[in-house]
Amino acid sequence: MTNLTPDQIPEKWGDIASAYGEAFESLTSQFADEVISQLSPKTGETVLDVAAGTGAFSLRAARLGADVLATDFAEGMVNHIQQRIDDDFIHNIKTSVMDGQALAVKDASYDISVSIVGLIFFPDIDKGFTELKRVLKPGGRCAVVCWGHPENFDMMRLLKQSIACAVPDFEMPTQTPVWARLVGEDALKEKFQQAGFEKVEITTIDGLLTLDSVEDFWSVFISSSPPMTALFSALGKENTERAGKEFVRLATDDFKKETVTLASKACVGIAYA
């Protein structure tokens, strides 16, 4: 893939690391917890987190005693994780800027490799799976999390409705999102098998994003990922404000609800080298 989208450019993610964490870590941490539950990292085991984002999984695994290397292709994301490590005085976790399609890691050197809604953005998803397997010791465990089908996303449905109501003449992007190249249980299982993994098990879980203040969520949501930044830049400030008011209205059922919960499905794949 020669023409990269905004969410495949490291600097774009680095610029919004804090906003991404504020908007979505309460959601992605649910997937991290599920992976922790299924893989059960133990004291002394080595864990590689690829496209680690804000570090939700890495920090959890380290607190259980595993020796963790958290990697991401965006220096800003890695710096964000490192700051959290320093703030919490965690000593068994290291960070490094790495391309998940060509990891600077020796063959068969880790007990566990993981990528939680990260590998799905890679220009070459197959290389991402190959690398996750290459670095595992024989019998090592791997987890990859991707999203379910886009039509099951409350947040995206609300976003589209909000913009359509507020700015009916605005043309939403029509191309398939990069992350939607790999969605659903069947596609995830196939990628594992193509990379040579064994004992592949896929489960779908419901991720719930609870918003105590929809207005506060919107204020960070508009700059929480490279695609959102690009979308709202094209929309313009005034139209973004109009869309935000519609988002709040629709989410809260015409302001009848204060706390709102948005659902999305994710597929959790566990496999063995």
What's the total number of strands?
7
Largest sheet: 7 strands, mixed
| Oligomeric status | single chain
**Silhouette:** globular
By CATH reckoning, the class of the domain at 6-149 and 174-207 and 264-272 would read Alpha Beta
Task: Tell me the CATH topology of the domain at 6-149 and 174-207 and 264-272.
Answer: Rossmann fold
Mean pLDDT: 95
Instruction: Spell out the helices and strands N to C.
Output: HHEHEHEEHEHHEHHHE
Q: Going across the biggest sheet, name each strand in turn.
A: 3-2-1-4-5-7-6
CATH architecture of the domain at 6-149 and 174-207 and 264-272: 3-Layer(aba) Sandwich
Low-pLDDT regions: none
Beta fraction: 15-25%
Percent helix, as a range, is: 40-55%
Straight-line distance between termini: 28 Å
InterPro entries: Methyltransf_25, SAM-dependent_MTases_sf
Protein name: Methyltransferase domain-containing protein
GO molecular function: methyltransferase activity
Organism: hydrothermal vent metagenome
In short:
The protein is of the alpha/beta class and 273 residues long. It is 43% helix and 22% strand.
Entry keywords:
single chain; 273 residues; alpha/beta; Rossmann fold; 7-stranded mixed sheet; 10 helices; 22% strand
Q: Can you describe what's shown?
A:
Helices cover 43% and strands 22% of the residues. The chain is an alpha/beta fold and 273 residues long. It has a domain at 6-149 and 174-207 and 264-272: Vaccinia Virus protein VP39 (Rossmann fold), CATH 3.40.50. Helix 2 crosses helix 3 (56-63), helix 6 packs across helix 10 (237-251) and helix 8 runs antiparallel to helix 10 (237-251). The longest helix has 23 residues, at 17-39. The relative contact order is 0.17.
